[in-house]
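Thread: Newbie trying to understand structure tokens

Hi all, I'm a second-year student working on a class project, and my supervisor (Dr. K.) asked me to get a predicted structure for one chain before our next meeting. I've only ever worked with sequences, so writing a 3D structure as a token string is new to me. If someone could post the tokens and maybe explain what I'm looking at, I'd be very grateful. Here's the chain:
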Amino acid sequence: MKVFNSKVLFIALFLFIIPNTYAQDTSNNAIIEEGVEDLKNKKVDPAIEKFNRVIKADPANSEAFRRRGNAYAMKGNLEQAIFDFNKAIKLNPASYEAYENRGLVYTIKEHSEQAIADFDKAIELNPKFAEAFFDKATYYVKKEGSDDKAIPNLNKAIELKPDFERAYLALGLVYRNKKNYDLAIANFTKLLKLKPDHLDAYFYRGKSYEEKKNYDMAIADYTKMIELKPNSPFGYFARAVAYGEKGSYDESIADYDKMLAMNIKKMNRMIYDNRGRIYTKKGEFDKAIADCTKAIGYDPNDSISYAGRGNAYLKKGEFNNAISDFSRAIKLGPEDGYCYYSRAKAYFSKKMYDESWNDIHKTEELKAKIDQEFLGLLKKESGRER
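---
Reply by user tm_fold:
Sure, no problem. This is what the structure looks like when written as tokens:
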């Protein structure tokens, strides 16, 4: 679902058919269009063969070079792609599409100045070319991490092309990254008006609602994802998490159950781990321990499931088992302050105050949250201030 993934970006942009502005021989133009159709169907080699035929028959055909450059870019042959775009530009210096395409390749190759220069040149040649503004925004987010530079370019792309679906999605993601959830939601909503079955828009809008703790709206979006794609686990997973945050534990467990019935092995560890945590919140500690144990079976080197099982043991009053699991989690993930803090509580319950203080100090070092009421109890029972 990452909108700035470079490979996906290339495929999406290179499949965009820009109206042909060149006076081409009819048969060559037909062959080029056949090649474009091949690219749309991800038949890259047959497309290259067709573009080669046109270039052989008409070596001055800039569009054939540009399209072949697109094909080589999709194939991952970036040097050959740049060669073809250079040739297309030499044959037709007014080809804003060739500059834009080459800029995308330079972006992947991390040739920053050349990429921006090409996008700017494409805009200079065609100030209404929305895709070039979108590409600049993509560059700023992906290569510079600058949301602020991306926003005006995305707004300009939408101004020029009001039905630009990818621009709305990107702008929503940028605002979400800036924690401006209202503007993120607004852009995802605009996208859904254009494309009511856009799964990514429902997902990210739901996540934005979750950040605002508007769980009912989030659940409604994830439910829509399920309606649109009932055999996919992702809507169920997102909704299960939202139900858990809302405190609707039975509904959350029901969604995890549905995912387990799908038997998607690569997700089973996360499902068992998450369902185990819900069982812990419900006070059903044996079920929680069983689920976390299953999760550990899928990945014995994942600290999260040990921490989850440790928490269930802690709440059940099995402090030795809790300490064992938190210690294992710390060994696997030594920068997780939560595990030190949780183990401190287990040591406290066993009246092992020095060990508890040691873990509190480590928790503070890692800047993890410490409940002040617990800290007060530790001071009182241990007779120590630090």
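A couple of things are worth pointing out once you decode it. Confidence is low (pLDDT under 50) at residues 11-24. Residues 244 and 352 are 33 Å apart (CA to CA). Feel free to ask follow-ups in this thread.
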